[in-house]
Amino acid sequence: MNTVITFQEHLSEFLEKFDDLSRRYDHTINNCSELGSLIDAYSKFITDDRNKEAWEQLERQESSDLNQLVVGLRKKSALCVAIMEKYRAFKLQNGNVEMTDYFQNIESCIEKEFGSFRVTSKSKVLLVGSGSFPMTPLLIAKRTGAEVVGIDIDDEAINLGRNVVERLGAGLNIRLEKALVENLNYTKDVTHIIFSSTVESKYDILDQLHKLTNENVVVAMRYGDQLKSLFNYPSRDVDGQKWRQVEKILRPDHVFDIALYKKA
Ligand SMILES: C[S@@+](CC[C@H](N)C(=O)[O-])C[C@H]1O[C@@H](n2cnc3c(N)ncnc32)[C@H](O)[C@@H]1O
């Protein structure tokens, strides 16, 4: 019981810190290192096997307080990851690139994103939730020569992201747009789609994409279940008439896992 209480206290502390740091974001790099350390500590916490058991015990209690804590942590940590990308983009503008553990963790997985459904130079890739530091489009375009379009709902993320692509992706076929999938001409031609894990409406968008995409499209859905659902929106059942899961890429040491879908 004590372990569970301590675990829940840790979660409350994380939430307080994420909340505080997200409120203090002022479009400068103030608080950058504080937030970087917090995100790294949180990444370690949610991939630490020792916390799995405490999480399972806590989950069995089905308390509404816990539910609120989980929902709050998911939302605030997602917001803070988006802010961290902004800090990283500001730093690049000032000529300073550094890599925190969290980003290394994300970037080391991009190679395996599509499992056996490889991206080639002829592929057309769409990333939903490209963020202010669009590392996924940069790495995919650089390694494969594919065309990549990233979309985001945040104006600042699009502007900062374009700046990053200009600096790090000269000559690569990457476009960032503030657009919804239904308003993008490109959607009907895409071969590969990636959903950022911290896009809350990702499963609703997946459902909507069924009628907007071609028959051969493959979708990589980043998600986190159980303990990892404290840092990611979790997986959901999909309409079996529309999509079928074809592969699951579980990565115990990474902050999120990946489910691959093709049309049913
Ligand atoms: C910061 S990135 C995080 C990327 C991280 N690598 C991941 O996999 O979650 C997430 C971005 O998704 C954007 N976003 C959230 N909801 C979205 C939506 N419905 N459509 C497009 N972008 C969205 C946010 O504005 C944010 O910039």
Can you describe what's shown?
Residues 121-242 form the Methyltransferase domain. Keywords: Methyltransferase, S-adenosyl-L-methionine, Transferase. One of its GO terms (biological process) is nicotianamine biosynthetic process. GO terms for molecular function: methyltransferase activity; nicotianamine synthase activity. Helix content is 44%, strand content 14%. 40% of the residues are buried. The termini are far apart. The protein has 8 helices and 7 strands. It has a 7-stranded mixed β-sheet with strand order 3-2-1-4-5-7-6, sandwiched between helices. α1 crosses α4 (64-93) and α2 crosses α4. The chain folds into 2 domains: 3-94; 101-263, Rossmann fold (3-Layer(aba) Sandwich), CATH 3.40.50.150. Bound molecules: S-adenosylmethionine (SAM). S-adenosylmethionine binds at residues 81-82, 85, 106, 128-129, 131, 151-154, 157, 196-199, 201, 222.
